[in-house]
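Fold sample X.
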Amino acid sequence: MAEAAQTTPAADERIKQISPLRKALIRPELGGMVGTVAVFTFFLLFAFDSGMFNSQGVMNWSIVSAQFMIIAVGACLLMIAGEFDLSVGSMIGFAGMMIAIFGVTLGWPIWIAIIVTFVLCIGIGALNGFIVIRTGLPSFIVTLAFLFILRGFTIYLPQIIERKTIIGGIKDAAEGDWLAPVFGGKILQGFFQWMGEAGLITTFTRGTRAGQPVVDGIPMLIVWAIVLIIFGHVLLTKTKFGNWIFAAGGDAEAARNSGVPVNRVKVLMFMMTAFCATVFAVCQVMEFGSAGADRGLLKEFEAIIAVVIGGALLTGGYGSVLGAALGALIFGVVQQGLFFAGVESSLFRVFLGVILLGAVILNTYIRRVITGER
């Protein structure tokens, strides 16, 4: 018995045991989760009978939330890598305008216009990252410059070519195109038709669409949001590259000394941000059938706000794609919910500011309590 006791290895004092509760409390999604519960509780109390939670109401705020989610995924990964991209909004407007010019003005097949636009915008994202890496300038400054450059081209090019800042006719040009429905179509239309016939969702009662469901499918915008969230979450939490992203944003020099290709990681994250912005732009022009020079205004700040609400740090190295998705959901629900609740729409930004501040304070306070930071 004595010999057995002597051979039992002693616990390593350097390893600190963390309870499941403490692990849950230091998750970056905590602020987003609390904010989501608070927002839904508020609107369930004050807007439950307004139509916000019927099929059409749910679809309305789901679409708005999905828009924020798409750009928030790219912004989240880039911020965790320690960088910012303030050109996201301008990239959305620029990408939409390029599709209109290529597909409508120049008469290219829409699928070619979409692919060329993706290549062009991802290339600009890579250029952003390359300039940041090569010059050592803050990404805030570099992407701020591209915010103005891209917005300027978005206004200039249609004026020179078409003598106007809005180009329509995209839906007609996309008729019969094989790639356009991937961004502008809907899925599960038969399922929604069945639910309408079964009386599970609202249907039209008059006109040529009598008996048809008001919500007749899930837009590809929402599908893209879900796909990007899953991809970003798996990339960040289940792969070696995800560890590289955290390392590049946490301590770039230490990461380099450990063999992490920090420069490559950062450039790829700028390209990912551009990809997400282009996805948003293509879905938008396919929905509206036109491209406008003012599209995407302030979207870069909305993406950053969603990511911060979701628990990411502005200093990099900490965050969660799922948290960013929750932040985007809060954003969309609040924006649409105020209308359903009969609240003055101008108070949207007041609500948003309160939620942003509350989420940041909560995340910071709990992280300091749990980790012992000061």
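Fold sample Y, listed below.
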Amino acid sequence: MNQRPQPEAELTVPALHRWNAVFWVLLGVVPPAVAVADAPGTTRFPVLALLAVLALSYGAVGLFPGSPALRRRTYPYVLVAGLGAMSYLLNGGAALFVVTLPHFWIYTANARAAIALSGLAAAGVVAGNAVRQGPDGEFFTGNVLFTLIGYAAGVLIGLGVNRITEDADERARRLRAELENARLRLAEAHHRQGAAGERERLAREIHDTLAQGFASVVVLAEAARSSLETDPARSARQLLAIENTARENLAEARVLVGAAPRSGVATGSVTDTLRRTLDRFTEDTGIGVTSELPDVSCDQQTRIALLRCTQESLANVRKHAAASAVEVVLTASPYGVELEITDDGCGFVTEDSRGFGLHGMRKRLAELGGDLTVTSSPGDGTRVLAMVPTDGRG
């Protein structure tokens, strides 16, 4: 027979146990105590003492629910002896036996033990009644019949409740297993999602910083090599630009590996930051840049996003646009900050663009609640408009 749930599991329904205790006291303990109130002391005192022992034993089980000695061994045998003795003292103890039957099912380890111990208690009640009747007395009294019927009914009801409890516990075990599997799958999904998000963030940071820096180094190195003999002074300036770009890339690499502050951007206003970037672009490419960069107050995240958008747009101009002029306009409005970058290059079909740069810019702006609008067509140049809401940041 399957192991019944341990009492600790059953006590997750304490209200039922409290009601059982109330009924046991009112219907099992009180009636015998009242019945012997006027009886001779030879009967009254032993009965009251025996009821006190049973009540104290039951109370001890309730007060010390974690004690296996009280639950699985001592208390059920105390009930067996007490019920048999009560039957002898009162010449009948069927009522107390029937009210006490749930205790055998609650405080034993399994259904087999409950059936055996409750049967032993029933035998004790019958034996106590028989001894009290004497050899010439009637054996099958109402007390004996009520005891036997109560025992049979208790076994049937106990087995039914035990089966229901086992089914419920099995469903609970399956549900807990399913919940645990779901929790593990969810944690794994969150881990994968976090890892994918971190890879995407690193890829975007590398593209916006290191990759553009290396591309600039390559362009400057090629220009310096070509003018090394004809214009040494220009080559020297380009070598200095290569050195500065390499230093900046080294600083960005330290940011990416966590050895420096996360921003990786020099402190200052967004206007100063963009102006330095535009000056470097003109110096490296020779492409003329006109700009309107008023003093705009914004937080560090917005400043970094606008800088990255500017760097990516200028990198696209250098690599793809074949432009001769670039215009950059920074505007503050009540609802946010706008950055517009326009070139007179060859343009492209925006629907056909699959580059990582534009996707990275859109992703970065979306994280701040902003958006990116790219307008272009072949032969008409390109207009990039980045907007970041301020939301009171600044």
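Sample Y note: Strands lie at 288-292, 325-333, 336-343, 371-376, 382-389.
Also: The longest helix spans residues 142-226.
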